[in-house]
């Protein structure tokens, strides 16, 4: 830093301010310092800065699956929000969601020098007390029912599912079938529970759900079964990918959408507007979930005792052309 200061004709403190991105330096001085840094091949030492500041400016992210679109979009939003706050992200996928694996992941992140951890935990682990997170490091959890013990950020899964079912009932459908997600998924259970409760509130007995695994292929297989039921005029699919497979199966079996069967998805993926027909779906604000995860974990870093609780990000119904009144209405 002293060499850079001498070459640029400034003080070492000015070099420090430029290298750390602080304000209060004129553009000409900043350019002189940056030119000197390039000429001398000087790079700020992140380890030294971490020792001086007491933080590494890095957030760890543990996730148990990179195969679902929701997790990928949440991770993307976390990385974007962290970069906006001047933090890098270290990703650590965990193949087997067990207590030993979680402990090992936290140990590895500690060796990689992170300031805090965000856990994207789709499966029933924290809420079922199958896994607990090690103490001593600030943590925020996405997609979990463990707000009594941890800081949790999640989409309003139940509210979105209620809106989907009410939309179909308001169109005049006698009931709504459900293409559910996997049993071990917290989000899938929340959506299925809200589907049942909304039908019960309307005085209806829910038909048996058909279960998929979030993939379009599982939606196609479920769709082949639903297409054989003439009493099925409305389906709420737990995500857009399964809804895509469902649309294909209905088309192949000669059940037109929405004239004979209405379909609502969940997620509002960018491609859902290009489905045939364009898909009515529930919009999830993944960018807001990621922003709140980063905001929550940075707040936890500055708070002696993190406060547990759940923050729900609202959803909204996006009405397109895959829903209509049932035949004869």
Distance between the termini: 77 Å
Strand composition percent: 15-25%
Order of strands across the main sheet? 2-1-3-4-5-11
Structural class: alpha/beta
DSSP, total strands: 12
pLDDT below 50 for ≥5 consecutive residues: which ranges?
none
Shape: elongated
Structure description:
The chain is an alpha/beta fold. 42% of the residues lie in helices and 16% in strands. The protein contains 11 helices and 12 strands. The protein has helices spanning 2-8, 12-19, 27-40, 46-53, 69-84, 99-111, 157-170, 186-201, 216-227, 240-252, 286-301, and strands spanning 58-63, 88-93, 116-120, 139-142, 151-155, 177-180, 210-211, 234-237, 262-267, 280-283, 309-313, 316-318. The strands form 2 sheets. The chain has a 6-stranded parallel β-sheet, with helices on both faces. Helix 5 (69-84) crosses helix 11 and helix 9 crosses helix 10 (240-252). It is elongated. The model has no long low-confidence stretch (mean pLDDT 87).
Main traits of this protein?
elongated; single chain; alpha/beta; six-stranded parallel sheet; six-stranded mixed sheet
Topology:
Elements: H1 2-8, H2 12-19, H3 27-40, H4 46-53, E1 58-63, H5 69-84, E2 88-93, H6 99-111, E3 116-120, E4 139-142, E5 151-155, H7 157-170, E6 177-180, H8 186-201, E7 210-211, H9 216-227, E8 234-237, H10 240-252, E9 262-267, E10 280-283, H11 286-301, E11 309-313, E12 316-318
Parallel strand pairs: 1-2, 1-3, 3-4, 4-5, 5-11, 6-7, 6-8, 8-9, 9-10
Antiparallel strand pairs: 10-12
Question: Outline of this structure?
Answer:
This protein has helices at 2-8, 12-19, 27-40, 46-53, 69-84, 99-111, 157-170, 186-201, 216-227, 240-252, 286-301, and strands at 58-63, 88-93, 116-120, 139-142, 151-155, 177-180, 210-211, 234-237, 262-267, 280-283, 309-313, 316-318.
